[in-house]
Amino acid sequence: PHTSFEGSSLSNSCSTMHSQSFSTRCNMALFPFQNNEGISLSIVGKSDGDSIDNGRDLIFDPITEDLLRKLFEETNYNSFTFNSEVSFKNSLFEITYIPYYLMADLYLFNPVFPEISMNLVNREELRLSSGFLLFGDGDLDKSLNLSMGSSLFYYSHTSANTLFSLFDLSNTDAEELIKFNSKYGVSGDLSFFLSIPSDIIPNFSIQYKNIASRINRNEKLTNSSTRLETSYLFDDYLLLGLGKSYKTLYGRFSYNLEIPTENYLSDTKFEHLNLGLNYTLKLLSLFMGLGQNYQTFGISFNSDQFKVGISYSKEKDLGDFQESYDDSAYIGMAINL
Fold first, then answer.
1. Which residue of 27, 87, 190, 305 has the fewest CB atoms within a 10 Å radius of its CB?
2. What is the dihedral of CA 150, 293, 216, 123, to 10 degrees?
3. What is the pLDDT of residue 17?
4. Spans of the chain, pLDDT less than 50
């Protein structure tokens, strides 16, 4: 969830995209190659219409029968995500406070005998991050460099994952249908980045994400045709990245291929492979994220003090169990002080 508008627009496939304002959100091993210091405030959100109101009500308001009955009258899919960050960065470290990472995904099945699958998350984080060169001179275009980055963070994670029908709602108290579970803990990320001075051979990164996390995904839900479950977001996993950046007279072009893996590289999840593409020219940046279940295109306008962007996404949160893509929009803003 420690991401940016740019990361969301690239399907979070950006771990080798160095020398960008969003680089450390993708990979803390890129910390030594950035020089933007100071305080920044940022928000990024995803919605598809009524999802904002529904997601906010479910996470913050008391669960009532009227609220749940209203959901059965909505369209078949609602998805809402909101992330807010306040960060301070200098040449040695970065401190980030995430007061709210909110997620509310709802899917309505069986119009004749309606059922709702629901996945809700309310998360708070305080994170300390840094990175340094292990060897090399920092010139990523002309020399071999190896860097290391790490993050240590405290999290408070409240979530609910449930499936219920209109019949259940008529026979069970609303509060019994949605039960929130809270977990607290300390976790971390560890990452490495290798730059290779070649126009052909890509740079390489490896990240161990959410080390010792107490948030584990439920494999039964992941393999279900009717349940929404997050993968490679809060649980621990390895992430491999291959990519390259090319700086020209007409801007910078970058590509990155991201592959999640488990069990110490023995279980590679090629179905979750994502490709991120970025083109930046002065104040304008274009983004594209391509994967089996997600396709995103975005644009942002940047200055030293302010950034605003919007992207359009076609998504299959249920993967192969979902016949068609759902449409969503991401909006991001950032202010540098």
1. 305
2. 70
3. 94
4. none
